[in-house]
Design goal:
By secondary structure, the chain is α+β, with helices and mostly antiparallel strands. It has four domains: 98 residues, 2-Layer Sandwich (Alpha-Beta Plaits), CATH 3.30.70; 65 residues, MutS, DNA mismatch repair protein, domain I (3-Layer(aba) Sandwich), CATH 3.40.1170.60; 54 residues, DNA polymerase, domain 1; 97 residues, DNA polymerase, Y-family, little finger domain (Dna Ligase, domain 1), CATH 3.30.1490. The protein is built from 13 helices and 13 strands. It is globular. Bound molecules: thymidine-5'-triphosphate (TTP) and magnesium ion. The site of thymidine-5'-triphosphate (TTP) has 15 residues, from strand 1, helix 1 and strand 3. The site of magnesium ion has 4 residues, from strand 1.
Length: 366
Protein backbone atom coordinates (compact mmCIF):
# COMPACT_ATOMS: atom_id res chain seq x y z
CA UNK A 1 0.00 0.00 0.00
CA UNK A 2 2.97 2.27 0.62
CA UNK A 3 4.36 4.13 -2.35
CA UNK A 4 8.06 3.41 -1.94
CA UNK A 5 9.13 6.47 -3.97
CA UNK A 6 7.17 9.22 -2.25
CA UNK A 7 7.82 9.95 1.42
CA UNK A 8 5.05 8.78 3.69
CA UNK A 9 2.70 11.75 4.02
CA UNK A 10 1.67 13.14 7.38
CA UNK A 11 -1.72 14.79 7.40
CA UNK A 12 -3.43 16.40 10.38
CA UNK A 13 -7.14 17.16 10.44
CA UNK A 14 -8.09 19.72 13.05
CA UNK A 15 -11.75 20.20 14.00
CA UNK A 16 -12.91 22.60 16.69
CA UNK A 17 -15.31 21.22 19.32
CA UNK A 18 -18.89 22.59 19.17
CA UNK A 19 -17.32 25.61 17.52
CA UNK A 20 -20.03 28.32 17.58
CA UNK A 21 -21.44 27.04 20.87
CA UNK A 22 -18.01 26.93 22.51
CA UNK A 23 -17.44 30.57 21.57
CA UNK A 24 -20.81 31.51 23.04
CA UNK A 25 -20.15 29.79 26.38
CA UNK A 26 -16.65 31.28 26.52
CA UNK A 27 -17.99 34.80 25.95
CA UNK A 28 -21.06 34.37 28.19
CA UNK A 29 -19.83 32.24 31.11
CA UNK A 30 -23.25 32.41 32.76
CA UNK A 31 -24.36 29.94 30.04
CA UNK A 32 -21.89 27.35 31.25
CA UNK A 33 -23.42 23.94 31.94
CA UNK A 34 -26.74 25.00 30.41
CA UNK A 35 -27.96 23.35 27.20
CA UNK A 36 -27.43 25.94 24.47
CA UNK A 37 -28.06 25.97 20.74
CA UNK A 38 -26.81 28.55 18.28
CA UNK A 39 -29.19 29.36 15.44
CA UNK A 40 -32.37 31.04 14.30
CA UNK A 41 -35.54 31.50 16.32
CA UNK A 42 -38.13 28.69 16.04
CA UNK A 43 -40.90 31.05 14.87
CA UNK A 44 -38.77 32.05 11.85
CA UNK A 45 -38.09 28.50 10.70
CA UNK A 46 -34.71 28.73 12.36
CA UNK A 47 -32.46 25.70 12.46
CA UNK A 48 -29.76 24.65 14.90
CA UNK A 49 -26.33 25.61 13.53
CA UNK A 50 -24.72 23.77 16.42
CA UNK A 51 -25.22 23.08 20.11
CA UNK A 52 -23.12 22.19 23.13
CA UNK A 53 -22.81 18.73 24.68
CA UNK A 54 -25.43 19.47 27.32
CA UNK A 55 -27.93 20.07 24.48
CA UNK A 56 -26.68 17.06 22.49
CA UNK A 57 -27.64 14.89 25.47
CA UNK A 58 -31.27 15.75 24.65
CA UNK A 59 -30.85 14.50 21.08
CA UNK A 60 -30.42 17.97 19.57
CA UNK A 61 -28.04 18.29 16.62
CA UNK A 62 -26.97 20.59 13.78
CA UNK A 63 -29.58 21.27 11.06
CA UNK A 64 -32.48 20.28 13.33
CA UNK A 65 -35.38 22.77 13.16
CA UNK A 66 -35.22 24.94 16.29
CA UNK A 67 -38.90 24.26 16.99
CA UNK A 68 -38.15 20.57 17.28
CA UNK A 69 -35.10 21.27 19.47
CA UNK A 70 -37.18 23.29 21.92
CA UNK A 71 -39.68 20.43 22.14
CA UNK A 72 -36.88 18.06 23.05
CA UNK A 73 -35.45 20.44 25.62
CA UNK A 74 -37.78 23.27 26.77
CA UNK A 75 -35.03 24.91 28.86
CA UNK A 76 -32.77 25.21 25.80
CA UNK A 77 -31.02 28.59 25.57
CA UNK A 78 -31.02 29.88 21.99
CA UNK A 79 -28.09 32.09 21.09
CA UNK A 80 -28.23 34.04 17.82
CA UNK A 81 -25.48 33.43 15.28
CA UNK A 82 -22.61 35.97 15.64
CA UNK A 83 -20.92 35.12 12.39
CA UNK A 84 -18.37 37.93 12.40
CA UNK A 85 -17.10 36.77 15.81
CA UNK A 86 -16.74 33.18 14.58
CA UNK A 87 -14.95 34.39 11.46
CA UNK A 88 -12.52 36.38 13.56
CA UNK A 89 -11.79 33.37 15.79
CA UNK A 90 -11.32 31.24 12.71
CA UNK A 91 -8.71 33.66 11.35
CA UNK A 92 -6.81 33.49 14.63
CA UNK A 93 -6.87 29.69 14.58
CA UNK A 94 -5.66 29.60 10.98
CA UNK A 95 -2.80 31.88 11.96
CA UNK A 96 -1.78 29.25 14.53
CA UNK A 97 -1.78 26.56 11.80
CA UNK A 98 0.51 28.80 9.74
CA UNK A 99 3.19 28.60 12.43
CA UNK A 100 3.54 24.91 11.69
CA UNK A 101 2.98 24.55 7.92
CA UNK A 102 2.09 26.47 4.77
CA UNK A 103 0.12 23.57 3.32
CA UNK A 104 -3.27 24.22 4.85
CA UNK A 105 -6.65 23.40 3.36
CA UNK A 106 -9.48 25.00 5.31
CA UNK A 107 -12.74 23.07 4.94
CA UNK A 108 -14.91 25.45 6.91
CA UNK A 109 -14.47 28.03 9.65
CA UNK A 110 -13.61 25.37 12.20
CA UNK A 111 -11.93 22.61 10.24
CA UNK A 112 -8.76 22.21 8.21
CA UNK A 113 -6.32 19.70 6.79
CA UNK A 114 -2.63 20.36 7.33
CA UNK A 115 0.15 18.57 5.51
CA UNK A 116 3.17 18.42 7.83
CA UNK A 117 5.25 15.95 5.81
CA UNK A 118 8.91 16.83 6.23
CA UNK A 119 8.20 19.49 8.87
CA UNK A 120 11.04 20.33 11.21
CA UNK A 121 8.70 21.39 14.03
CA UNK A 122 8.40 19.20 17.13
CA UNK A 123 11.20 16.90 15.94
CA UNK A 124 9.14 16.20 12.85
CA UNK A 125 6.46 14.41 14.88
CA UNK A 126 2.97 15.04 13.48
CA UNK A 127 1.51 13.82 16.77
CA UNK A 128 3.47 16.43 18.73
CA UNK A 129 2.61 19.13 16.15
CA UNK A 130 -1.10 18.36 16.59
CA UNK A 131 -0.69 18.55 20.35
CA UNK A 132 1.15 21.87 20.10
CA UNK A 133 -1.52 23.35 17.81
CA UNK A 134 -4.31 22.30 20.18
CA UNK A 135 -2.41 23.74 23.10
CA UNK A 136 -1.85 27.08 21.29
CA UNK A 137 -5.56 27.24 20.43
CA UNK A 138 -6.49 26.66 24.06
CA UNK A 139 -3.99 29.12 25.46
CA UNK A 140 -4.77 31.90 23.02
CA UNK A 141 -8.49 31.39 22.38
CA UNK A 142 -9.78 29.34 25.32
CA UNK A 143 -11.38 26.94 22.85
CA UNK A 144 -10.76 23.22 22.48
CA UNK A 145 -9.96 21.38 19.26
CA UNK A 146 -9.69 17.73 18.30
CA UNK A 147 -7.20 16.34 15.81
CA UNK A 148 -6.64 13.28 13.69
CA UNK A 149 -3.17 12.35 12.47
CA UNK A 150 -2.79 9.91 9.57
CA UNK A 151 -1.00 9.31 6.27
CA UNK A 152 -3.91 10.78 4.27
CA UNK A 153 -6.94 13.08 4.42
CA UNK A 154 -9.59 10.36 4.53
CA UNK A 155 -8.12 8.70 7.62
CA UNK A 156 -7.10 11.95 9.33
CA UNK A 157 -10.68 13.20 9.14
CA UNK A 158 -12.09 10.03 10.66
CA UNK A 159 -9.38 10.05 13.33
CA UNK A 160 -10.21 13.58 14.50
CA UNK A 161 -13.62 12.27 15.54
CA UNK A 162 -12.23 9.31 17.46
CA UNK A 163 -11.27 11.12 20.66
CA UNK A 164 -13.54 14.12 20.31
CA UNK A 165 -13.93 16.43 22.25
CA UNK A 166 -10.52 17.83 23.20
CA UNK A 167 -8.56 14.78 22.08
CA UNK A 168 -6.53 13.40 19.25
CA UNK A 169 -5.97 10.05 17.58
CA UNK A 170 -3.14 8.75 15.43
CA UNK A 171 -3.38 6.19 12.67
CA UNK A 172 0.12 5.08 11.73
CA UNK A 173 0.78 3.49 8.33
CA UNK A 174 1.12 0.11 10.07
CA UNK A 175 -2.27 0.53 11.77
CA UNK A 176 -4.24 1.34 8.60
CA UNK A 177 -5.09 -2.23 7.67
CA UNK A 178 -6.56 -3.09 11.06
CA UNK A 179 -8.25 0.30 11.37
CA UNK A 180 -10.18 0.16 8.09
CA UNK A 181 -11.12 -3.50 8.51
CA UNK A 182 -13.79 -2.71 11.10
CA UNK A 183 -14.74 0.69 9.76
CA UNK A 184 -18.46 1.00 8.88
CA UNK A 185 -19.02 1.86 5.21
CA UNK A 186 -20.91 5.03 6.12
CA UNK A 187 -17.66 6.50 7.42
CA UNK A 188 -16.26 6.53 3.88
CA UNK A 189 -16.00 9.98 2.32
CA UNK A 190 -18.78 10.22 -0.28
CA UNK A 191 -20.95 7.45 1.16
CA UNK A 192 -24.21 9.06 2.26
CA UNK A 193 -27.45 7.63 3.52
CA UNK A 194 -28.63 6.23 0.18
CA UNK A 195 -25.33 4.63 -0.83
CA UNK A 196 -24.95 3.15 2.67
CA UNK A 197 -28.43 1.64 2.45
CA UNK A 198 -27.65 0.19 -0.95
CA UNK A 199 -24.47 -1.32 0.47
CA UNK A 200 -26.30 -2.78 3.44
CA UNK A 201 -28.80 -4.44 1.09
CA UNK A 202 -25.85 -6.05 -0.66
CA UNK A 203 -24.60 -7.30 2.71
CA UNK A 204 -21.76 -4.77 2.78
CA UNK A 205 -21.41 -3.22 6.22
CA UNK A 206 -17.70 -2.77 6.88
CA UNK A 207 -14.75 -1.74 4.74
CA UNK A 208 -13.56 -5.35 5.01
CA UNK A 209 -16.78 -6.39 3.21
CA UNK A 210 -16.10 -3.92 0.41
CA UNK A 211 -12.54 -5.23 0.12
CA UNK A 212 -13.97 -8.60 -0.95
CA UNK A 213 -15.36 -6.99 -4.13
CA UNK A 214 -13.24 -6.51 -7.22
CA UNK A 215 -12.81 -3.11 -8.84
CA UNK A 216 -15.13 -4.26 -11.59
CA UNK A 217 -17.84 -5.37 -9.17
CA UNK A 218 -17.63 -2.08 -7.30
CA UNK A 219 -17.95 -0.17 -10.58
CA UNK A 220 -20.94 -2.27 -11.57
CA UNK A 221 -22.74 -1.46 -8.33
CA UNK A 222 -21.57 2.10 -7.70
CA UNK A 223 -20.65 3.49 -11.13
CA UNK A 224 -17.85 6.01 -11.30
CA UNK A 225 -17.60 6.08 -7.51
CA UNK A 226 -16.45 2.43 -7.67
CA UNK A 227 -12.78 3.13 -8.30
CA UNK A 228 -12.60 5.59 -5.43
CA UNK A 229 -14.36 3.09 -3.18
CA UNK A 230 -11.84 0.42 -4.13
CA UNK A 231 -9.05 2.63 -2.79
CA UNK A 232 -10.83 4.16 0.18
CA UNK A 233 -11.97 0.83 1.66
CA UNK A 234 -8.27 -0.07 1.83
CA UNK A 235 -7.39 3.22 3.50
CA UNK A 236 -5.74 4.57 0.35
CA UNK A 237 -6.34 8.22 -0.50
CA UNK A 238 -3.93 10.21 -2.65
CA UNK A 239 -5.82 13.49 -2.63
CA UNK A 240 -3.38 16.29 -1.85
CA UNK A 241 -3.92 18.85 0.88
CA UNK A 242 -4.79 21.88 -1.23
CA UNK A 243 -4.04 25.39 -0.20
CA UNK A 244 -6.96 27.76 -0.22
CA UNK A 245 -5.91 29.56 -3.42
CA UNK A 246 -7.17 26.60 -5.43
CA UNK A 247 -10.95 26.54 -5.48
CA UNK A 248 -12.46 23.22 -6.37
CA UNK A 249 -15.96 24.59 -6.66
CA UNK A 250 -18.16 27.62 -6.17
CA UNK A 251 -21.82 27.50 -5.30
CA UNK A 252 -24.80 29.56 -4.25
CA UNK A 253 -27.89 28.43 -2.40
CA UNK A 254 -31.02 29.78 -0.82
CA UNK A 255 -33.40 28.50 1.84
CA UNK A 256 -36.94 29.78 1.39
CA UNK A 257 -39.26 31.15 4.01
CA UNK A 258 -42.07 29.25 2.28
CA UNK A 259 -41.40 26.00 0.45
CA UNK A 260 -41.62 26.07 -3.36
CA UNK A 261 -44.48 23.76 -4.22
CA UNK A 262 -43.17 22.16 -7.41
CA UNK A 263 -40.52 22.26 -10.09
CA UNK A 264 -42.33 25.04 -11.97
CA UNK A 265 -42.01 27.27 -8.94
CA UNK A 266 -38.30 26.43 -8.74
CA UNK A 267 -37.39 27.66 -12.23
CA UNK A 268 -37.52 31.46 -11.62
CA UNK A 269 -35.40 30.88 -8.51
CA UNK A 270 -32.90 28.95 -10.60
CA UNK A 271 -32.62 32.02 -12.86
CA UNK A 272 -32.00 34.29 -9.89
CA UNK A 273 -29.43 31.96 -8.35
CA UNK A 274 -27.77 31.58 -11.74
CA UNK A 275 -27.07 35.30 -11.81
CA UNK A 276 -25.31 35.23 -8.45
CA UNK A 277 -23.42 32.12 -9.46
CA UNK A 278 -22.17 33.90 -12.58
CA UNK A 279 -20.84 36.69 -10.37
CA UNK A 280 -19.11 34.25 -8.00
CA UNK A 281 -17.59 32.41 -10.92
CA UNK A 282 -16.24 35.65 -12.33
CA UNK A 283 -14.76 36.65 -8.98
CA UNK A 284 -13.16 33.24 -8.68
CA UNK A 285 -11.73 33.54 -12.21
CA UNK A 286 -10.27 36.95 -11.38
CA UNK A 287 -8.17 35.25 -8.72
CA UNK A 288 -7.20 32.20 -10.70
CA UNK A 289 -8.10 30.85 -14.14
CA UNK A 290 -9.70 27.43 -13.87
CA UNK A 291 -11.60 25.27 -16.32
CA UNK A 292 -15.13 24.22 -15.54
CA UNK A 293 -15.51 20.49 -15.13
CA UNK A 294 -19.16 20.10 -14.26
CA UNK A 295 -22.31 21.85 -13.09
CA UNK A 296 -24.37 20.65 -10.16
CA UNK A 297 -27.56 21.37 -8.26
CA UNK A 298 -28.74 20.68 -4.75
CA UNK A 299 -32.41 20.31 -3.85
CA UNK A 300 -33.57 20.00 -0.25
CA UNK A 301 -37.16 18.83 0.15
CA UNK A 302 -39.58 19.80 2.89
CA UNK A 303 -38.70 16.59 4.78
CA UNK A 304 -35.03 17.72 4.81
CA UNK A 305 -33.92 15.00 2.44
CA UNK A 306 -31.35 16.51 0.13
CA UNK A 307 -30.61 15.28 -3.33
CA UNK A 308 -27.99 16.42 -5.81
CA UNK A 309 -27.43 16.03 -9.53
CA UNK A 310 -24.50 16.95 -11.67
CA UNK A 311 -23.46 16.90 -15.29
CA UNK A 312 -20.11 17.27 -17.02
CA UNK A 313 -19.97 20.68 -18.72
CA UNK A 314 -17.23 23.06 -19.81
CA UNK A 315 -19.19 26.30 -19.55
CA UNK A 316 -21.96 27.86 -17.49
CA UNK A 317 -25.39 27.02 -18.88
CA UNK A 318 -28.72 28.08 -17.40
CA UNK A 319 -30.60 25.44 -19.33
CA UNK A 320 -28.48 22.65 -17.88
CA UNK A 321 -29.18 23.88 -14.35
CA UNK A 322 -32.91 23.90 -15.07
CA UNK A 323 -32.76 20.36 -16.43
CA UNK A 324 -30.72 19.18 -13.44
CA UNK A 325 -33.19 20.73 -10.99
CA UNK A 326 -36.07 19.03 -12.82
CA UNK A 327 -34.21 15.72 -12.70
CA UNK A 328 -33.42 16.08 -8.99
CA UNK A 329 -36.98 17.15 -8.13
CA UNK A 330 -38.41 14.17 -9.98
CA UNK A 331 -36.79 11.83 -7.45
CA UNK A 332 -39.03 12.86 -4.57
CA UNK A 333 -41.61 15.27 -6.04
CA UNK A 334 -42.16 17.20 -2.83
CA UNK A 335 -42.13 20.91 -1.89
CA UNK A 336 -38.63 22.37 -1.88
CA UNK A 337 -37.09 24.28 1.02
CA UNK A 338 -33.62 24.89 -0.40
CA UNK A 339 -32.11 25.18 -3.87
CA UNK A 340 -28.43 25.42 -4.72
CA UNK A 341 -26.39 25.70 -7.91
CA UNK A 342 -22.69 25.02 -8.21
CA UNK A 343 -19.71 24.75 -10.52
CA UNK A 344 -16.97 22.23 -10.12
CA UNK A 345 -13.57 23.11 -11.52
CA UNK A 346 -10.85 20.90 -12.93
CA UNK A 347 -8.02 20.33 -10.52
CA UNK A 348 -5.12 22.03 -12.30
CA UNK A 349 -2.57 20.72 -9.83
CA UNK A 350 -3.12 17.00 -10.05
CA UNK A 351 -5.79 16.31 -12.61
CA UNK A 352 -7.70 14.62 -9.79
CA UNK A 353 -10.99 15.85 -8.55
CA UNK A 354 -12.85 15.78 -5.33
CA UNK A 355 -16.43 15.11 -6.20
CA UNK A 356 -18.58 17.07 -3.78
CA UNK A 357 -21.18 14.38 -4.11
CA UNK A 358 -22.14 11.55 -6.42
CA UNK A 359 -24.86 11.66 -8.97
CA UNK A 360 -28.12 10.18 -7.73
CA UNK A 361 -26.75 10.50 -4.27
CA UNK A 362 -29.53 11.40 -1.87
CA UNK A 363 -28.24 12.70 1.42
CA UNK A 364 -30.38 12.96 4.49
CA UNK A 365 -28.98 15.38 7.06
CA UNK A 366 -27.01 13.22 9.41
P1 LIG B 1 -19.03 20.97 12.98
O1 LIG B 1 -17.55 20.83 13.10
O2 LIG B 1 -19.76 19.96 12.16
O3 LIG B 1 -19.71 20.95 14.41
P2 LIG B 1 -19.21 21.55 15.78
O4 LIG B 1 -17.84 22.15 15.68
O5 LIG B 1 -20.26 22.50 16.27
O6 LIG B 1 -19.23 20.29 16.73
P3 LIG B 1 -18.19 19.07 16.79
O7 LIG B 1 -17.63 19.13 18.17
O8 LIG B 1 -19.03 17.86 16.57
O9 LIG B 1 -17.17 19.30 15.73
O10 LIG B 1 -19.40 22.40 12.40
C1 LIG B 1 -18.65 23.54 12.72
C2 LIG B 1 -19.56 24.76 12.81
O11 LIG B 1 -20.26 24.95 11.60
C3 LIG B 1 -20.60 24.63 13.89
O12 LIG B 1 -20.14 25.08 15.15
C4 LIG B 1 -21.74 25.44 13.35
C5 LIG B 1 -21.59 25.39 11.85
N1 LIG B 1 -22.59 24.45 11.24
C6 LIG B 1 -23.77 24.99 10.73
O13 LIG B 1 -23.97 26.21 10.77
N2 LIG B 1 -24.70 24.13 10.20
C7 LIG B 1 -24.52 22.75 10.15
O14 LIG B 1 -25.40 22.01 9.66
C8 LIG B 1 -23.29 22.23 10.67
C9 LIG B 1 -23.04 20.74 10.64
C10 LIG B 1 -22.37 23.11 11.20
MG1 LIG C 1 -16.24 21.11 14.76
Amino acid sequence: MNDSKAPQRKVIHVDMDCFYAAIETRDFPELNEQPIAVGGQPNKRGVVATCNYEARAFGIHSAMPMGQAIKKCPQLVIQPVRMSVYQQESKGIQAIFKRYTDTIQPLSLDEAFLDVTGSSHCQGSATLIAQAIRQDIWQEHRLTASAGIAPNKFLAKIASDWNKPNGQYVITPEAIEAFVRDLPVKKIFGVGKVTAEKMHKLGLHLCSDLQQLSLKQLQTHFGRFGAQLHRLCRGIDDRPVRTSSIRKSVSVEDTFLHDLTDVKACLPVVERLYESLQKRHKRSMDKRQQDIKSLYVKVRFSDFNTTTAQQGHTALCLDTFKKLVAKAWQRQQMPVRLLGLGIQYHDQATGQQEIPFNENHTEGKQ
